[in-house]
Design a protein that fits this description.
With 204 residues, the chain is α+β, with helices and mostly antiparallel strands. The protein has one domain: Glutamine Phosphoribosylpyrophosphate, subunit 1, domain 1. It is built from four helices and twelve strands; from the N terminus they run E-E-E-E-E-E-H-H-E-E-E-E-H-H-E-E. Strands 10-1-2-11-12 form a five-stranded antiparallel sheet, with helices on one face. Helix 3 packs antiparallel against helix 4. This is Proteasome subunit beta.
Length: 204
């Protein structure tokens, strides 16, 4: 069994018209045994920037703490929030720095950049970036997420339609993966507001 599959996870980020959504499942497991059903995998960096961390839960929490530290230093020095592209480069550099003993994490970064243009990207555990214009996925359920997102996604969705699409994609995908599930956690971000919703899913 891969160390990336030890805790189980499903993460997806999707872009809409001047908005984006990022969603994860809520299960924390040790292989096939469920430990918690309300585990947070998506973290807020600032109002228009979120990161989801799939992979080993302990490494995800450590990495998040280091990223918050780096972002706070940036805010103090620059007196502004970090742009999503800049943050993606920071995460990539931080992961590559530890390439000989990496954090066992697959980050999914989603944010609103200049002129509220949505930005999403994912990377592997040593920081090789993969940029996309529609959606990115990570975690043990990534194969079924690719299929669901591929069939459901359409460009320039309004916020509510985007929420519906990402929720359906997540819920139908985790049903096909025994290491993730127990509901979902969705953040919908527009230029003016951040909406957080909890999804109820199959509890078996």
């Amino acid at each position: 069994m891969s160390i990336f599959e030890y805790n189980g996870s499903a993460l997806v980020a999707m872009v809409g018209k001047n908005c984006f959504a990022i969603a994860s499942d809520r299960r924390l497991g040790v292989q096939l045994q469920t430990i918690a059903t309300d585990f947070q995998k998506i973290y807020k960096i600032h109002d228009k920037l979120f990161i989801g961390l799939a992979g080993l839960a302990t490494d995800a929490q450590t990495l998040y703490q280091r990223l918050v530290f780096r972002h706070k230093l940036y805010q103090l020095r620059e007196e502004r929030d970090m742009k999503p592209e800049t943050f993606a480069s920071l995460v990539s550099a931080l992961l590559y720095e530890k390439r000989f003993g990496p954090y066992f994490c697959q980050p999914v970064i989603a944010g609103l950049g200049d002129e509220d243009k949505p930005f999403i990207c994912t990377m592997d555990s040593i920081g090789a970036k993969e940029l996309a214009k529609d959606f990115v996925v990570a975690g043990t359920a990534s194969e079924s997420l690719y299929g669901a997102c591929e069939s459901m996604f359409k460009p320039d969705m309004e916020a509510e339609e985007l929420f519906e699409t990402i929720s359906q994609a997540l819920l139908s995908s985790v049903d096909r993966d025994c290491l993730s599930g127990w509901g979902g956690h969705v953040y919908l971000v527009t230029p003016t507001e951040v909406t957080e919703r909890i999804l109820k899913g199959r509890m078996d």
